[in-house]
C-alpha cells in the first residue's frame, strides 16, 4: 500500500520530483541503525550542515539523511574566523530550530571547543543539554582514541555519539594549521583511533582531510559507517558545509577548500536580488500599486 499523508503530517521522506533516499530506509525518521544498514548494504547517505529553520526544511525535503548543527556556525553564522569561539549556549537555539523543522533527517549537534575535554562527566552533561534543550538526536565530538572513555560514558548515558578524526578544526593550533592528516605511517594511527572509538560505542566515524587511501583503510577496518569531508569516495556518507555546497560563502579573499564542490551560486543570486530591490526602492518602482492596500 502506498504511503499517505494528511495536511497535518509531514510529506514522505525524500518526497518531491528530485528527491531520493537510502534504499534501505522505508520512510519516517532516519535513525542510527539506518546508517549502519546503509554500510552493510553498500549504500551511501548524504549529510549537510544546517543552522536554521528554512535550510533544515529544504534539506529535509531533498532527502538529505543527516543534518549537522556544526561548530562551523562560528565562521558561517556568527562571523568568527574559526570554529573555536562558539559556545554551547550559542548552538542550542540553532539546534532547536533545525530539530523542529526537520521531520525525517537524523539531527546531530557538534560539541564546541571546551565543552567536553575536561572529563567524561563534562561531556555527558553537555550531551544531556544538547538532547534535552537542543532536541537533537545525536552529538559529534572531535578526537581519537584518547576520548574513548568519554565516548563510552556518553553512550552508557544514552547519548549517541559520532566521532570525528583526521583533521580536527578545534585542534588547528596544536596541528600546526589546516593540514591533511593520516599520510604515510600516520595512517595506522587513524585506524587505531577509529577502532577504539567503535569499541567505545560510537555509531559513526567522520574523517576530515584524510588521504583517500587512508580513509578507505579506516572504513574497511571498522563495521560502523564512516562519513568523509575531504576523505575520498570510500566512506559511507559525505558531508559539506551547506554555505560551501550552495555557493553562498565566497567573496574577495575567501579560500574555498579543495574538497568542496559548489552545486549553486547563491551568493550571486542573492547579491543580484538585493541590488535590484535596493534600486527599485530608490527609484520608486517598489512598492507598486499591486503591493499596496
TrEMBL record:
<keyword id="KW-0460">Magnesium</keyword>
<keyword id="KW-0808">Transferase</keyword>
<dbReference type="GO" id="GO:0003864">
    <property type="term" value="F:3-methyl-2-oxobutanoate hydroxymethyltransferase activity"/>
</dbReference>
<feature type="binding site">
    <location>
        <position position="140"/>
    </location>
    <ligand>
        <name>3-methyl-2-oxobutanoate</name>
    </ligand>
</feature>
<protein>
    <recommendedName>
        <fullName>3-methyl-2-oxobutanoate hydroxymethyltransferase</fullName>
        <ecNumber>2.1.2.11</ecNumber>
    </recommendedName>
</protein>
<keyword id="KW-0963">Cytoplasm</keyword>
<dbReference type="Pfam" id="PF02548">
    <property type="entry name" value="Pantoate_transf"/>
</dbReference>
<comment type="similarity">
    <text>Belongs to the PanB family.</text>
</comment>
<feature type="binding site">
    <location>
        <position position="142"/>
    </location>
    <ligand>
        <name>Mg(2+)</name>
    </ligand>
</feature>
<keyword id="KW-0566">Pantothenate biosynthesis</keyword>
<feature type="binding site">
    <location>
        <begin position="71"/>
        <end position="72"/>
    </location>
    <ligand>
        <name>3-methyl-2-oxobutanoate</name>
    </ligand>
</feature>
<keyword id="KW-0479">Metal-binding</keyword>
<feature type="binding site">
    <location>
        <position position="110"/>
    </location>
    <ligand>
        <name>Mg(2+)</name>
    </ligand>
</feature>
<dbReference type="InterPro" id="IPR040442">
    <property type="entry name" value="Pyrv_kinase-like_dom_sf"/>
</dbReference>
<feature type="region of interest" description="Disordered">
    <location>
        <begin position="1"/>
        <end position="28"/>
    </location>
</feature>
<comment type="subunit">
    <text>Homodecamer; pentamer of dimers.</text>
</comment>
<dbReference type="InterPro" id="IPR003700">
    <property type="entry name" value="Pantoate_hydroxy_MeTrfase"/>
</dbReference>
<comment type="function">
    <text>Catalyzes the reversible reaction in which hydroxymethyl group from 5,10-methylenetetrahydrofolate is transferred onto alpha-ketoisovalerate to form ketopantoate.</text>
</comment>
<feature type="binding site">
    <location>
        <position position="110"/>
    </location>
    <ligand>
        <name>3-methyl-2-oxobutanoate</name>
    </ligand>
</feature>
<feature type="binding site">
    <location>
        <position position="71"/>
    </location>
    <ligand>
        <name>Mg(2+)</name>
    </ligand>
</feature>
<comment type="pathway">
    <text>Cofactor biosynthesis; (R)-pantothenate biosynthesis; (R)-pantoate from 3-methyl-2-oxobutanoate: step 1/2.</text>
</comment>
<feature type="active site" description="Proton acceptor">
    <location>
        <position position="208"/>
    </location>
</feature>
<dbReference type="InterPro" id="IPR015813">
    <property type="entry name" value="Pyrv/PenolPyrv_kinase-like_dom"/>
</dbReference>
Amino acid at each position: 500500500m502506498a504511503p499517505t499523508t494528511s495536511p497535518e503530517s509531514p510529506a514522505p521522506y525524500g518526497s518531491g520530483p528530485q528527491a531520493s533516499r537510502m534504499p534501505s530506509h522505508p520512510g519516517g525518521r532516519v535513525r542510527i541503525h539506518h546508517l549502519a544498514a546503509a554500510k552493510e548494504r553498500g549504500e551511501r547517505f548524504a549529510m549537510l550542515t544546517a543552522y536554521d529553520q528554512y535550510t533544515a526544511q529544504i534539506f529535509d525535503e531533498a532527502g538529505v539523511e543527516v543534518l549537522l548543527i556544526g561548530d562551523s556556525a562560528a565562521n558561517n553564522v556568527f562571523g568568527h574566523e574559526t570554529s573555536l569561539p562558539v559556545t554551547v549556549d550559542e548552538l542550542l537555539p540553532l539546534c532547536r530550530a533545525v530539530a523542529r523543522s526537520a521531520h525525517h533527517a537524523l539531527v546531530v549537534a557538534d560539541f564546541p571547543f571546551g565543552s567536553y575535554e575536561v572529563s567524561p562527566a563534562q561531556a555527558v552533561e553537555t550531551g544531556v543539554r544538547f538532547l534535552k534543550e537542543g532536541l537533537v538526536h545525536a552529538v559529534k565530538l572531535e578526537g581519537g582514541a584518547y576520548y574513548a572513555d568519554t565516548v563510552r560514558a556518553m553512550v552508557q548515558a544514552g547519548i549517541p555519539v559520532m566521532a570525528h578524526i583526521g583533521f580536527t578544526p578545534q585542534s588547528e593550533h596544536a596541528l600546526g594549521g589546516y593540514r591533511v592528516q593520516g599520510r604515510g605511517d600516520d595512517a595506522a594511527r587513524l585506524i587505531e583511533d577509529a577502532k577504539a572509538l567503535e569499541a567505545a560505542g560510537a555509531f559513526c566515524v567522520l574523517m576530515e582531510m584524510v588521504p583517500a587511501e587512508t580513509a578507505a583503510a579506516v572504513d574497511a577496518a571498522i563495521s560502523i559507517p564512516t562519513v568523509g569531508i575531504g576523505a575520498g569516495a570510500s566512506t559511507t556518507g559525505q558531508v559539506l558545509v551547506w554555505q560551501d555546497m550552495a555557493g553562498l560563502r565566497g567573496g574577495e579573499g575567501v579560500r574555498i577548500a579543495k574538497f568542496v564542490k559548489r552545486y549553486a551560486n547563491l551568493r550571486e543570486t542573492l547579491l543580484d536580488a538585493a541590488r535590484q530591490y535596493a534600486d527599485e526602492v530608490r527609484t520608486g518602482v517598489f512598492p507598486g500599486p499591486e503591493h499596496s492596500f
